Amino acid sequence: MSRRFDVAVLGADSVIGHALLELIAERRFPVGEISALALGAEQGASVDFAGTTLMLDDATAFDFTQAQLCFLASDDPRLAAQAERAADAGCVVIDAGGTLWRDPEIPRVVPEINAPALRGFQARGIVAAPDALVVPLALALAPLHRLAGIRRIAATAIVPVSDAGRLAFEDLARETVALLNARHYERRHFPQQIAFNLIGQIGPAGAGGATERERRVIDDLRALLDTPELAVGLTVVQGAVFYGYALAVEVQLAAAQDFDAIVQALRTAPGLELIDSLEAADCPSPVTDATSTEAVRLARLRPGSAADTVMFWLTADNVRRAAALNALASAEILVREHL
């Protein structure tokens, strides 16, 4: 019989937590006992797992010596503190929520790109994830980097409200209903109208004009591709969708390449689905093609503004693919090769 691992899920009541529990069951991860943990859960609160009901336990009172693996399914700093407590107890922590860990010894991993970095989990007992927006972008860029090297990236990313949490989600849902009924809605998260709108800046910008998230995505991308000097221009836009990333990207390669070689590199890249169709109806969108799916879809691949550039459109599920599956794929490698 293969070895099984007792697992704790911190933030099991979050959208990432729900997706993780679904994927653990669907992919038949070798789980023994599983504990669903949350902060301030109401008495009797529960989550579903593999056709059964798991009662939510208090994360602050849980004994992490009872688990070998712990998934962190939120970027809530209070849960991150519990994750550190789990690591101190000898439990291996895999982050799915994109917490910004300051310790340079904690590896940031996208398994399709830098799986060998998982060996570094032993330093702190924690495997970090990059900002979730980095995952689909890196999956598309890594094969181009291997093919020819990358000199510059320019991208506009449209992100869903689920990236920003429950209040943001409620703002879009309730403001949409209110406007359709000619009523006013007092927003609790967004500084301006989100329903039927795009917001061109998320949070305050720093001295250079970039927001905190834009800076973090750039830093994480450079680290993953091991290109500290890579030129990256990024604009993150808040979209009026609940789930799913969409990115318009232009890449300048280190040298011009035969276009067929570029197509082949992307077609055979792990984790990518290349869509060749030129029909508008086949172009993937966040709502129809990047919700409750594990596919990262790349479409509209074409030459860019110069001989050494290419352009494309990218979509991915921000919760299931970019966050939950990225963490679970890391865990699958850990239990198979390192634990």
Automatic annotation (TrEMBL):
Pfam family name, one: Semialdhyde_dh
One GO MF term: protein dimerization activity
Residue span, Semialdehyde dehydrogenase NAD-binding domain: 6-121
Biological-process GO terms, alphabetical: amino acid biosynthetic process
InterPro entries in the record: NAD(P)-bd_dom_sf, Semialdehyde_DH_NAD-bd, Semialdhyde_DH_dimer_dom
Record family assignment: Belongs to the aspartate-semialdehyde dehydrogenase family.
NCBIfam families hit by this protein: PRK05671.1, PRK14874.1
Stated name of the protein: Aspartate-semialdehyde dehydrogenase
